[in-house]
Design a protein that fits this description.
Low-confidence stretches: none
Strand content: 35-45%
Helix content: 25-40%
Number of helices: 4
Structural class: alpha+beta
Number of strands: 9
Largest sheet: 5 strands, antiparallel
Length: about 190
């Protein structure tokens, strides 16, 4: 093969000097009106961006605004592009990157159903206590635990429940907010 050939755009020519993929949590204040969520999601799907987590809720009823929290990943330039394109959407009031704003808190809630008896049941309860998960439903052969925390804590708890009889998981997605007395502009 000729050493002067330039690699094509093929995935087989991976460039180790490319910027690493980063995960960012974005908080977006939008008008609470029909179709807004579809427009935001359409921006992501139309450009091939992935959404790892998505939560939406009305936050100011009197102003008819909602907060969308999106966890997405990409190179630093892709993250800048996502924020820029979100800011241009008409129903968007503001976009904050909680990852770069510094001191922020993110949490996720999950309900985890585990079926088992005997030692597996005892071990599931012991681990739940260690992770500060609450039992919100119990039967003679199963439990439903509620766990809240950072996503990696929830992931770890779920992975430990797999060999103990994990049946089902329901997750809310990430919610995030910055520390301090200032709120996000709307």
């Amino acid at each position: 093969m000729n050493a002067n050939l330039q690699p094509s755009g093929s995935a087989y020519f991976l460039d180790a000097s490319k910027p690493a993929v980063e995960t960012h949590t974005l908080a977006v204040i939008v008008d609470n009106e029909p179709g807004v969520l579809a427009r935001v999601i359409g921006l992501f799907s139309g450009r091939g961006y992935n959404i790892d987590s998505l939560t939406v809720s009305e936050t100011q009823h009197d102003k008819h605004t909602s907060r969308i929290t999106i966890v997405t990943s990409g190179t630093p330039s892709v993250i800048v592009q996502i924020k820029s394109q979100l800011e241009r959407l008409v129903p968007v009031h503001s976009v904050a990157d909680l990852t770069v704003q510094g001191d922020s808190i993110t949490r996720e809630l999950a309900m985890v159903k585990v079926a088992g008896t005997g030692e597996k049941r005892v071990e599931a309860l012991r681990l739940a206590e260690a992770f500060r998960a609450r039992v919100i439903d119990a039967g003679t052969t199963s439990f439903i635990f509620e766990i809240t925390g950072k996503s990696d804590k929830v992931d770890q708890f779920i992975s430990l429940m797999v060999p103990l009889g994990l049946v089902e998981v329901a997750r809310t997605g990430v919610a995030g907010i910055t520390r301090g007395p200032e709120g996000m502009k709307s």
